[in-house]
Amino acid sequence: MSEPDQPAVECRELVYSFGHGRGKGPVTRAVDGVDLEVRPGEVFGLLGPNGAGKTTTIRAITTLLPTARGMVRVFGHDCATDRTGVRRLLGYVPQALSADAGLTGRENVALFARVFDVARAERAERVAQALAAVDLTEAADRMAGTYSGGMVRRLELAQALVSAPRLLVLDEPTIGLDPIARAGVWERVEAVRRATGMTVLVTTHYMDEADRHCDRIALMDRGRIRALGTPEELKARVRAEDPAQDAPTLDDVFRHFSGRALTDDAKEGEFSDVRRTRRTASRVG
Predict the structure, then answer these.
(1) For residue 97, what are the CA distances in angstroms to 52, 69, 127, 229, 268?
(2) pLDDT tens track, the chain, 285 positions
(3) What pTM does this model have?
(4) CATH second-level architecture of 9-284?
(5) Where does the ABC transporter domain lie (predicted)?
(6) Nearest alpha carbon to residue 29 among 76, 72, 68, 73
């Protein structure tokens, strides 16, 4: 059972390795003993370059990967033993675009209402509410394939919101978008958070976004958490440890704690995971 004082997300000694080893190829430790706690109601940023282990950590929290070593809980529900309970609590926007270009915006959100088992009697209203929350009501009956990149991301946010989750997980939600579209996505996320009080866990390598929107951040590199705190707390630590940094940015903070610069080599996603979503919807009816 989840209790009011339970962390929204709790990870203890989480470890994930990929590869065979034993002469069958190298083993890569993508997540290396991560300890993490996200408080209810906050916007928590998991920051780092590609390959840092952010997406693997997110996939463990969303139960898309089985818990290998360590412990992961969402509002007190164990991700290893109560995957169904965890999934009922969260909405997830993956890094790769998952909207179906061959459906309208409304049909895409309705599809996810079925996937998340929203009661039939409530689906139409919940779909309309989710579309309104991301300012897509007027475009709801257009094909998603005609949407701009920013509109697609807002559509995916509506898909995640239709189940009224307590935890919203966003994996690189603004990757590949221009600055105006990025700002539009965050505007809707902030509005929903204010209206519902939901917890938001976001991964990003855009330090300016994290500085502006996150209550606390964890800097992740090579599978480990290198530093954790509010943006201002981390900047203050850098100033205290390196007096030459009188006005550090989060990029400077990352460089200070990881020993290297943050690279930005991410590529824009494509419409994907569509067939998987359709198969799931057909199973749940």
Answers:
(1) 21, 29, 19, 30, 9
(2) 455 679 999 999 999 888 765 656 677 888 999 999 999 999 999 998 888 899 999 999 999 998 779 999 999 999 999 999 999 999 999 888 789 999 999 999 999 999 888 899 999 999 999 999 999 999 999 999 999 999 999 999 999 999 999 999 999 999 888 899 999 999 999 999 999 999 999 998 889 999 999 999 999 999 999 999 999 999 999 999 998 888 999 999 999 998 877 764 444 333 444 444 444 444 434
(3) 0.85
(4) 3-Layer(aba) Sandwich (3.40)
(5) 9-247
(6) 68
